[in-house]
Automatic annotation (TrEMBL):
It comes from Frankliniella fusca. Keywords: Membrane, Transmembrane, Transmembrane helix. This is Tetraspanin-12. InterPro entries: Tetraspanin/Peripherin, Tetraspanin_EC2_sf. Residues 224-243 are annotated as: Disordered. GO terms for cellular component: membrane. Residues 224-234 have a biased composition (Basic and acidic residues). It is a multi-pass membrane protein. It comes from the Eukaryota. It is found in: Membrane. Gene3D superfamilies: Tetraspanin (1.10.1450.10). The chain crosses the membrane at residues 51-70, 77-100, 193-212.
Length: 243
C-alpha cells in the first residue's frame, strides 16, 4: 500500500510538471501557427478570437500546474481536488475551442470576409508579398478580383486587355481561394494542437484523481485504526500478589 501510494504521488508530481509543459507548448505552437498568417494576410476579424483566445487557457495551465505540484508535494487532499477540477476545466476549454476552430475551417465566411477585405484595397502595396507567397499576383482590378496571372508576370503592374500571351490569361482561382485555404489549414492545425493538449490535460487530471483516491483511502484507514484503538479496553497490569 505504501509503495503504491508513493508511486501514485510520483505520478501526480510528473502530471503537474507535464501540465505546465503542455500549456507552454500549446501556447508556443499556437503562436507559431498564427503569427505567420497575421504577418502575411489581413486576417478577417471573424478569425481573431478563435486564433488568439486559446492562448488564455494554455497559459493558465502554468499556474495550475504550479498549484498541482505544491499540492502533490504537501499531500493536500482538498487542494489537489480543486486542482484536478481546474485541470479538467482547462482541458474542456481547449477542446471546445478546438471544435470552434474546426467548425470555422469549413465555413464559407472565411473566404467571403477575406474577399471583402481584399477588394477594399486591391492595389495596395501590402498585397505584393501575398501575390508572391500564394502565387496569385497580378490582379488587374476589381472586375478581375477572382482572377490572377502567372507568377512570371508579377513584375508587370497591370495587364493590357489586348495583350497576347500567358500574361493576358487570368486564372479562375485568384488570391481569395489560396488565402482562404491557408487560413483553413492554420485553423485545422491549431485545432489538432488544442485537441491533443486537451486529451493530455485530462490524462493529468486522471493521474491527480488517482492520487486523491489514494490519499482518501489512507485517511480512512488511519481513521479506522484510531477508532479501533480508542475502543480497546484498558488493561491493568497483573502484579505478583502474596496471599
Amino acid at each position: 500500500m505504501a509503495l503504491s501510494s508513493r508511486c501514485l504521488r510520483y505520478l501526480a508530481l510528473a502530471a503537474a510538471v507535464l501540465f505546465m509543459v503542455l500549456g507552454v507548448t500549446d501556447a508556443a505552437l499556437s503562436l507559431l501557427l498564427a503569427l505567420p498568417l497575421f504577418s502575411l494576410l489581413t486576417v478577417p476579424k471573424l478569425l481573431h478570437a478563435p486564433l488568439l483566445v486559446p492562448l488564455a487557457p494554455a497559459l493558465l495551465a502554468v499556474p495550475v500546474g504550479v498549484l498541482a505540484l505544491s499540492a502533490a508535494r504537501g499531500q493536500r487532499l482538498w487542494r489537489l481536488l480543486a486542482v484536478a477540477v481546474l485541470q479538467v476545466a482547462l482541458g474542456l476549454a481547449l477542446a471546445a475551442l478546438a471544435g470552434w476552430q474546426l467548425q470555422l475551417s469549413f465555413s464559407a465566411r472565411v473566404e467571403t470576409d477575406f474577399g471583402a477585405l481584399m477588394s477594399e484595397s486591391l492595389l495596395d502595396a501590402k498585397w505584393q508579398p501575398v501575390y508572391h507567397e500564394l502565387r496569385c499576383c497580378g490582379l488587374a482590378g476589381p472586375a478581375s478580383f477572382h482572377g490572377s496571372i502567372p507568377t512570371a508576370c508579377c513584375a508587370r503592374e497591370e495587364v493590357a486587355p489586348s495583350a497576347a500571351g500567358p500574361c493576358a490569361t487570368l486564372y479562375s482561382t485568384g488570391c481569395v481561394a489560396p488565402a482562404a485555404d491557408r487560413m483553413r489549414a492554420v485553423l485545422r492545425s491549431s485545432a489538432e494542437v488544442h485537441a491533443g493538449a486537451a486529451a493530455l490535460m485530462w490524462l493529468c487530471a486522471f493521474l491527480s484523481a488517482m492520487y486523491i483516491d489514494s490519499l482518501k483511502r489512507a485517511a480512512r484507514k488511519r481513521s479506522e485504526l484510531q477508532v479501533n484503538h480508542e475502543d480497546e479496553p484498558l488493561r491493568t497490569p497483573i502484579t505478583n500478589q502474596k496471599f
